[in-house]
Design goal:
- The protein has about 200 residues and is mostly helical.
- The protein folds into two domains: about 1-75, Glutaredoxin; about 85-200, Glutathione S-transferase Yfyf (Class Pi), Chain A, domain 2 (Up-down Bundle).
- About 55% of the residues lie in helices and about 5% in strands.
- The chain is built from eight helices and four strands.
- The protein has helices spanning about 10-20, 35-45, 65-70, 85-115, 120-145, 155-170, 180-190, 195; strands spanning about 1-5, 25-30, 50-55, 60.
- It has a four-stranded mixed sheet with strand order 2-1-3-4, covered by helices on one side.
- Strand 1 (about 1-5), helix 1 and strand 2 (about 25-30) form a beta-alpha-beta unit.
- The chain starts with a strand and ends in a 5-residue tail after the last helix.
- InterPro entries: Glutathione-S-Trfase_C_sf, Glutathione_S-Trfase_N, Thioredoxin-like_sf.
- Keywords: Transferase.
């Protein structure tokens, strides 16, 4: 199978790292939805990253759906998401917040980089910025409730670290490590994991 998309996308990087943790073999093809639009269109007419192309040329889109499919390819004991109970609920909460942080970071970047400055809508940017701050504040609060930085590397942990690194790459002045020390420390530790090192975002 082939994973299509650039690793500077948090969604593509999230999938790539989780596939490695699952032990699912894949080939990564760095095709940009911007610079390589027409080429991407030949692989997936919707031009959405990440795209997973299966051996029979069927395609899957959306990072969460791709990871759900990948989980079905490995034994249950290798799952990156707890199967039930409070641990599953917490992982889903953390994942939801991390994906919200990714989404709001992308919205701000697109507004500032893809829309002409005279057409940018500041009230909209202020609203999205507030949502971004809220997502990271909730992640920091949830992580701070535990006695130690999480050591298990599941899909929720990958999602948090990837989201943090993406926002730090794109909007470092808006979300600071000083205001989120637990999350920053956790993400720094995660980035030292072999699956992260072998999947750099830039």
């Amino acid at each position: 199978m082939e994973l299509i998309g650039m690793l500077d996308s948090p969604y593509v990087r999230r999938v790539a790292i989780c596939l490695k943790l699952l032990g699912v073999e894949f080939e990564h093809r760095a095709v940009s939805v911007f610079r390589d639009f027409e080429r991407f269109k030949t692989l997936n007419p919707v031009v959405k990253a990440p795209t997973l192309v299966l051996a029979d040329d069927q395609i899957l889109m959306d990072s969460s759906l791709i990871l759900e499919y990948a989980a079905g390819l490995v034994p249950a004991g290798q799952a990156l998401l707890p199967a039930h109970g409070p641990a599953r609920l917490r992982a889903l909460q953390l994942t939801g917040l991390a994906l919200a942080a990714c989404e709001k970071t992308v919205q701000i970047v697109y507004e500032q980089q893809q829309r002409p400055q005279e057409k940018q809508h500041q009230p909209w940017l202020d609203r999205v910025q507030g949502q971004l701050l809220a997502a990271y504040a909730e992640l920091e609060k949830l992580l701070a409730q535990t006695a130690a930085i999480p050591q298990v590397m599941g899909s929720a942990e990958v999602s948090m670290a990837v989201a943090w690194s993406f926002t730090q790459l794109m909007l470092p002045e808006r979300i600071t490590a000083q205001a989120h020390p637990v999350l920053a420390a956790f993400s720094a530790q995660a980035e030292r994991h072999p699956a992260f090192i072998s999947t750099p975002q830039v």
